[in-house]
Amino acid sequence: MPKKSLRIIPLGGLGEVGKNMMALEYRNDIIVVDAGVLFPEESMPGVDLVIPDISYLVRNRDRVRAFFITHGHEDHTGALPYVLRELDVPVYAPRLAYGLISVKLKEHSGLRNVSLREIEPNKTIKVGSFGVEFFRVCHSIPDAMGLAIRTPLGLIIHTGDFKIDHTPVDGMPTDLAHLATLCKDGVMLLLSDSTYAEVPGYTASERVVGEALNQVIGQAEGRVIVATFASLIARIQQIMDAAGRHHRKVSVVGRSMVNNVKMALEMGYLSDPDEVLVPTSTLRKLQPHQTVVVTTGSQGEPTSALVRIANGDHRDVQIRRGDTVVISATPIPGNETVVSKTIDNLLRQGAEVLHDRIATVHVHGHASQEELKTMLNITRPRFFVPVHGAYHHLVAHAELARLMGVTSDNVFILEDGDVLELTEDRGEVTERVPAGHVYVDGGQVWTVNSDVLSDRRALAREGVVVITLAVDKGTGRVLSAPRIASTGFMDLEDMPDLLERAMQVASAAVDGNSISQDMDTVTNAVRESVSRFLYTETHLHPRIIAVPIEV
Amino acid sequence: MPKKSLRIIPLGGLGEVGKNMMALEYRNDIIVVDAGVLFPEESMPGVDLVIPDISYLVRNRDRVRAFFITHGHEDHTGALPYVLRELDVPVYAPRLAYGLISVKLKEHSGLRNVSLREIEPNKTIKVGSFGVEFFRVCHSIPDAMGLAIRTPLGLIIHTGDFKIDHTPVDGMPTDLAHLATLCKDGVMLLLSDSTYAEVPGYTASERVVGEALNQVIGQAEGRVIVATFASLIARIQQIMDAAGRHHRKVSVVGRSMVNNVKMALEMGYLSDPDEVLVPTSTLRKLQPHQTVVVTTGSQGEPTSALVRIANGDHRDVQIRRGDTVVISATPIPGNETVVSKTIDNLLRQGAEVLHDRIATVHVHGHASQEELKTMLNITRPRFFVPVHGAYHHLVAHAELARLMGVTSDNVFILEDGDVLELTEDRGEVTERVPAGHVYVDGGQVWTVNSDVLSDRRALAREGVVVITLAVDKGTGRVLSAPRIASTGFMDLEDMPDLLERAMQVASAAVDGNSISQDMDTVTNAVRESVSRFLYTETHLHPRIIAVPIEV
C-alpha cells in the first residue's frame, strides 16, 4: 500500500466490533474514538471488568494525539482511568461525558493532570492531520455525539451509538441538517452503529414511553415505582413531568440514581419546575397515590435498590398491595433470569408489575433499519464499515449498505485488531494488531490469562481437595499419614467417612512408593490414587492439590 | 378442612411451578403427574441436573399409586430413573414417551422391574379413587397429552404442555371435541400451562414454519443445513417433505438427532416416502444444491454438531460459501449469547444464516393468550390453578381466568410445595411440604447443599490458596516454614515473588504465635495474615485453606 493511506483499527468490543475503542491513523498521527469497559462474560468468573488491549497504542505512544469520547456511557468511557496511566494525551468529550469522566478520574490517584477538555458541537478541533467536529445524535443518554473527521484523504463520519429521534425529550434531535452540510462534498468512510441492524422499521421516539408512563402514573391507584437506567436522564424527566401533571411527588432511591439526578439537575439536563422532587423521608407523610419512586435495578443487579425492594430488605421502600412497579428497560442479554426473578418477587408481595414485554414502557437507544438507511442516504459514503455489533449485526448492516448502493468491494466487515488500510479508491485489511482483552480483577489490571480462568471454572464445577504430606528433609521419606481437606466438593454429611477413607488411600499410596525417595513421584502417586478413589466413590472430579512440606 | 378434600401439590419446577412434577391426593391415594429434570442455573456450578425433592412422596410411599407422564420431554420424564429407585409404582405414558423412557431406564441398572405401561388416549385408567384419561394435545413433540382425572369431588383437567394447533403436521390436533365431551358435566379444577400467558394472540401453526422452510430449501442455491431440537419430529418431517419436493437428499448429523430420527422412523412418527434420507457419506457424491443436513445444536450446546460445524472442527460437515444455515429454534433464556456466537462463526465462514429473529423459521410449543382463553372456555372450571411458568406467567394466566369468569377466590397461584386443599365449594392452602431441589452431580443424587454451592462460587471468583504447616506431634510447635500453593488465583508471572513473600508472611505469623501451642490458633493466625497480605498486594480475596499436619 502507498504511504498516503488511512488506517482504521477497531480495538476492543468483547464480540462487538469497535464498540469500546477504535483507532484512526494517518501517517504520524493516531486518534482514538472512545475508551470503554465491558462487563465480563460467564466464562470469566471473578473478573470485574474487561478493557481493551491497548498494547498497539502503547507501542506507538509517540503518535497517539488524543481520545475523542462520543458519550458518557461506561462502555465508551470506563477504560479511561486505566488507559490514561499509559497514555498521556488529551481527552475531548461532550459536556455530560466530561462531567462523568471528571468524577471518575478523581477517584483514581495519579490522574490529576489529565488534560480533559469539554467540546462544543459543530466546532473543529485540529489534532495533527485530523480535524474533528462533533455533531449531535440521539441516544439513551444526553449529549451523545457522532464525529465528522476531516483527513487528507477525505471525510470520515463515525456515528457513535445513535438513533434518529425526531422528537427527543430534551428537544435536541440527531442533527441531520448539519450532518448533511458536512457531507455535501462527499464522504470517504462511514462507520455506523449496527446494534439494531437486524430490526426492521424505526425505533420509536422516547416520547412514546413518556405517554405510556404518563398514563400509568395517572391511572395507578397507589404508589408508582419506576426502575430505569441511572443515565437515562430523558426517562427520568418524563417521569417527573408525568408526576407533576398528576400531582404526585417523586423520590429518588438508589445511589447511582441519586448521584445522577443531582448531577443532571446541577448541569441543567433535568429540570424540576413543578418541584416534584422530595427526599425519601417525605414519602412517609404522603398518601401512596401522591407518590412516585424512581430507582435503579432495572437489570436485576443483586445489590440494586429494586432488587432489595423486591426481596423485602430495603430500608426505605417496602412493597404494599396497590403499588405499581414499572421496569422501564429491556434486560440486557444474560440478565433475563435475574430480571424475571425480581418481577416474581415483586408480584409475590402484591405489586402490579409492568415491563417491556407487556407494556410500552421502554424504547432502546439505537437506530433500526430505516434509520440506518437514512444515515447511509445522507452520508452516501465511498467506503462503509459497520461497527458496534456482533458479527451477525455487522453482516446485516453491510447488506443494508449494499442495498443503498455502496459498492460491495468497499464494504468491510472487520474484527477487532484488523487494520483496514484505505487509499482514496480502495481498501484492504493489511495486518492484525493485538486486540485481545485485559481484565480488571480486584480493582487492578491483570493479564488474567486463560489458564487462570479455566482453573477457576474447574474449581467451580467440583471444588478442590487438598492433600498435605510431611516429608523428611534429610531422607525424603514421608513422615506420618497425609492430611486431607476440601471445599466446594460435596456435602460430606452424605458420606461422613469419605475423607477418612481417602486419607487411608493416600497413606497406602505413600507406603506403596516408600522405596522411592523422589518427592514428586510420591506426591503424584498420592494425588492420582486419591483422585481415582474419589471418582469411584462419588463420580466427581474435584481439583486435587497435593502439597508436600519438608521438615 | 373436612376429610373429603382433594390436595393439589406442585412439587418441582426450579421457578416454574409444578412444571416437572405435581401430586394429586385424595384420602388414601396419591397420583403424580410427570417426573422431570431441569437444567441447573448459573448459581449452581458443577451441578449436572436438578430433580424435584420427593421426600413428601417417599414419606407417603404407601399411598402413592402411579405416575402419569404427559409427554416425552426430559423436563417431564428425566427424573424417573432417580425417582423410581425410591418409589415402586407403575408409570403410565403415551406411546412415544413410553419408548423414550424405556431406553432411559435400560441405562440404569436396578430398574429392570419397573412397571412401565403404554396408554391409549380416551381410555380410563382406574387408580385408587382416581380415573385417569389421557387426551391429545399439540406440543413440540409427538404424542403429547393432557389428563382428565375423575375424582370423587369432580373432574380435574391438567393440560400438560400444550398449544392448540388446528393444522399440526402429524394430523392430530388438540382434541377439543373430546375434551368438551369430557367436560360436559362440569369441571372442578383446571390446571393449565402458563408458559406463554403473557403473549397476546395465537401461537402460529407448525405449518407456517413448514412453508418458510420449504421456501428456503427451494430457493437456496447451495446446501441447506437446518438445526433444530432432536425431539421436534414434526419439524424434521417438514424438512424432509420440503427436501423431497425440491429433489434434495437429507442427511442427519448429531448423535441425539440420529437416534431420534431412527426411533421416529421405526415407531412411525416420521415417514420417508420420497426416500430422501441418505447417510452422511453419500453427501459427498452430491452437488450442494442437492443436499439438506438436519442437525442438533440449535441452543449453541458446546459439543453439539452445529457448534462443531461453526467452529470448523466437525469431521463430516465443513461450511462452504453458498451454504444456508437455518436455526429453527428460539434460544432458551440464558443461551442467547452462545447461540449468537455460533451464528457469528457460521457467518465468518461464509454461510448465510437464517434464525428466528429475521425469518419465520420457528414457532414455539405453548399456547398463547387466545388459546388459553379457549381452554378456559371449553372447561369452564370452578377452580383454576395456573401451572408451568414463572410466577409472573402464573399471575398473567390467573388474570385471564378472572376475565373469563372464574371467581377470584377460586383462582390459586401456588408455589412448589404449597398444599392446596379443595372441597366441593372452596379451596385453601393449608400447609407446605418440602419441595426444594435435589441435585445430580457426577451421575449420582446428592443433596449438594447451598454451602457447597456457595463455596464453589467463591472458588470461581478468585481461586484458592493452600497453606501447609508441619506441626510437632509432641510439642505442638510448628516445624519449618509453611508451604504455599495456589490455583485459579492469578497469573503469578505478573508478580513472580508473590507466593514467596506470602510464605515469609506465614512464617512471621508462626513466629509471632510461637508461644501458643494451640494448633488452631496458629493456623488461624497464618490464614488471616496471608489473606491480609494477598489482599493488600492484589486486591483479590482468594479462598484460603490452611492445613496443619502433625509429624
Summarize the structure.
Chain A contains 16 helices and 25 strands. Chain A has 551 residues and is of the alpha/beta class.
Q: Can you offer a commentary on this structure?
A:
2 copies of one chain form a homodimer. By secondary structure, chain A is an alpha/beta fold. Chain A is built from 16 helices and 25 strands. In chain A, the strands form 5 sheets. The first copy, chain A, has an 8-stranded mixed β-sheet. A 6-stranded mixed β-sheet of chain A has the order 8-9-10-11-12-18. In chain A, strand 8 and strand 9 (130-137) form a beta hairpin. At the A-B interface, helix 11, helix 13, helix 14, strand 23 and strand 24 of A face helix 11, helix 13, helix 14, strand 23 and strand 24 of B.
List keywords for this structure.
homodimer, 551 residues, alpha/beta, Metallo-beta-lactamase, Chain A, Rossmann fold, Ubiquitin-like (UB roll), 3 domains, eight-stranded mixed beta sheet, six-stranded mixed beta sheet, 25 strands
First-residue to last-residue Cα separation of chain A: 66 Å
CATH superfamily of the largest domain in chain A: Ribonuclease Z/Hydroxyacylglutathione hydrolase-like
Gross morphology of chain A is: globular
- Arrangement of strands in the largest sheet of chain A: 7-6-5-3-2-1-19-20
Main sheet record of chain A:
8 strands, mixed
Instruction: Say what oligomer this is.
Output: homodimer
CATH class of the largest domain in chain A: Alpha Beta
Number of helices of chain A: 16
Instruction: Output the CATH topology of the largest domain in chain A.
Output: Metallo-beta-lactamase, Chain A
Mean pLDDT of chain A: 92
Q: Structurally, how many domains make up the residues of chain A?
A: 3
- Structural class by sheet pairing and helices of chain A: alpha/beta
Q: Count the beta strands of chain A.
A: 25
Q: Low-confidence parts of chain A lasting 5 or more residues at pLDDT below 50?
A: none
